[in-house]
Write a structure and sequence with these properties.
The complex is a heterodimer of chains A (238) and B (134).
Chain A lengths: L9 E7 L3 E10 L9 E4 L14 E5 L4 E3 L5 E4 L4 E4 L6 E8 L2 E5 L2 E14 L11 E6 L2 E7 L10 H11 L3 E6 L12 E14 L7 E8 L9 E3 L1 H4 L2
Antiparallel strand pairs in A: 1-9, 1-13, 2-3, 2-8, 3-7, 4-5, 4-8, 6-7, 10-11, 10-12, 12-15, 13-14, 14-15, 14-16
Chain B lengths: L9 E5 L6 E2 L3 E14 L10 E15 L5 H12 L2 E9 L2 E17 L5 E8 L4 E3 L3
Antiparallel strand pairs in B: 1-2, 1-5, 3-4, 4-7, 5-6, 6-7, 6-8
Classes of the chains: A mainly beta (238), B mainly beta (134).
Chain lengths: 238, 134
């Protein structure tokens, strides 16, 4: 497969709404390169950003009614609404918990830089004569997004005012970067999602161009719980 | 003999020491192996003297984003989880370097007029070594 042209990259920016309960939502087996029957994703995409501070109950059915799965047998990926079982689980799966409603305000992205610096802690000891040693520290994500003002997102309607408000209030938002360009509403394996805060908004206007904006973002943990960002699990679990 | 063109270089990434996955879409790589020299020249020496120290390396690469490339997936996973990968840079079929590393930085640049460009910086967590085969 050849490289993905940047022209199809879609960035979605949005506020995170009030945590909302859902009950016994059906999950679908994920396709892709991972081992079969390990990963299940909540079928309702609108409910796929899970509140990492909430309690979740996963139930499985092998044909004779649902039973609650032992939490030690699976891992939750809150940023994508995915359940990863430790062992192959060929069952119907449903989940109860809370999701964070998202309100995408733009796909008018022109350019994006996504940087994922991982802190490296030097740990070489005195006797390590021939080999350096280091351990991984804090993961981070930061970058900028350039986008155009358009009639659909004119100042005073939604996009610009909202982002300016996010910057002003240091609001925790979500950011999704879809590297393979699907606009179907599903998340292909190239998707990256994170909780972020926007910290710098620049607008530039001249008479020969549409108004352009650049906004800088910084990863932010949601209520001090869970991962602040992740790749779609089909990549993570390769 | 004339110098080999740079496009004969292959980069392999693996989560274990087996090096089976070629890094696809790779456009540039730097593997700078170094040996630190610890100066032990004494006052009355008539010539400088040193002893061998750490074997460190600066490693970085650039590639076009490809979601289906297994080696790129290893880099992304290692960066997200803080886990190590093995990197082997083969400058020729029978000559190269390998090292175990953390992926300290990945940058993605996407624009409407270009492919998605990625760069990765790796931090060694062990000594590099010269190798003679993949």
């Amino acid at each position: 497969m050849s490289a993905t042209p940047g022209v199809v990259t879609i960035a979605k920016i949005g506020a995170v709404g009030l945590s909302t309960a859902f009950s016994q939502e059906a999950c679908s087996l994920l396709g892709g390169g991972e081992s079969s029957y390990l990963n299940y994703k909540i079928s309702a995409n609108a409910k796929s950003l899970w509140d990492p501070t909430a309690t979740f109950v996963v139930e499985v059915s092998y044909g004779g009614g649902y039973t609650t799965a032992d939490p030690s047998t699976y891992t939750l990926h809150h940023l994508f609404g995915v359940i990863t079982f430790n062992d192959a689980t060929d069952a119907l799966v449903r989940v109860t918990g809370k999701y964070l409603p998202t309100y995408a305000v733009t796909t008018a992205c022109e350019k994006i830089n996504l940087r994922l610096p991982l802190q490296i802690l030097e740990a070489t000891t005195m006797n390590s004569l021939y080999a350096p040693f280091a351990i991984a520290g804090r993961a981070n994500a930061e970058g900028t997004i350039d986008f155009l003002e358009s009639p659909a997102y004119d100042w005073g309607t939604s996009l610009d005012v909202e982002i300016a408000t996010y910057v002003e209030n240091a609001t925790t938002c979500y950011l999704e970067v879809n590297f393979t360009g699907s606009e179907s509403g599903d998340y292909p394996s190239g998707a990256w999602r994170g909780f972020v805060k926007f910290k710098d908004l620049t607008s530039a206007a001249d008479q020969n161009s549409v108004i352009k904006y650049t906004v800088a973002f910084q990863a932010q943990q949601y209520n001090s719980v869970g991962k602040s960002f992740s790749w779609y699990p089909t990549l993570v679990l390769t | 003999m004339a110098a080999l063109p740079a496009n004969t270089v292959d980069v392999y990434v693996e989560t274990s020491d087996s090096y089976s996955h070629l890094l696809g879409e790779c456009t540039s790589v730097k593997f700078n192996p170094k040996r630190e020299l610890l100066d032990d020249t004494e006052f009355n020496d008539t010539a400088p003297s040193s002893v061998a120290g750490l074997k460190v390396a600066d490693i970085s690469m650039e590639f076009n984003f490809n979601v289906s490339d297994t080696a790129q997936g290893y880099l992304r996973t290692a960066n997200e989880n803080g886990t190590a990968v093995y990197v082997k840079v083969m400058l020729a079929s029978n000559y190269g370097y390998k090292c175990q590393c953390l992926v300290s930085d990945i940058s993605h640049d996407a624009a409407v007029k270009d492919l998605i460009k990625c760069s990765a910086t790796l931090s060694p967590i062990g000594a590099w070594s010269a190798v003679t085969s993949v």
